[in-house]
Prior knowledge:
The chain is about 30% helix and about 20% strand. It has about 100 residues and is of the alpha+beta class. The chain has a domain at about 35-90. The strands form two sheets. It has a three-stranded antiparallel sheet with strand order 2-3-4. Strands 1-5 form a two-stranded parallel sheet. The termini are far apart.
Amino acid sequence: MNVGDEGGFAPDVDDPYQAVDIILEAFEKAGVAGKFAIAMDVAASEFMVEKDGKMAYDLGFKSGSNVISREKLIDMYVDLAKNYNVISIEDPFDQDDFEA
Length: 100
């Protein structure tokens, strides 16, 4: 299991949906499914990149393999919130991405 910079759960996954599915599976196995909501500390400044003169976000973590616009990132957050009972998203965008 991977551990993030501040000791948080950092699974080796391809997308955030897979990470949340793992957490929900753990809730099921622990017998606490439905008793918790999900909160995320995204730390988006860590994967912000510039593309065509605009801020974008590399979900491949600055590998250039999965760069998306802030609009697509917003859509993903909305989808996660709706489908996974995400109640809080901390640092969803780069600290200087004021438009977002």
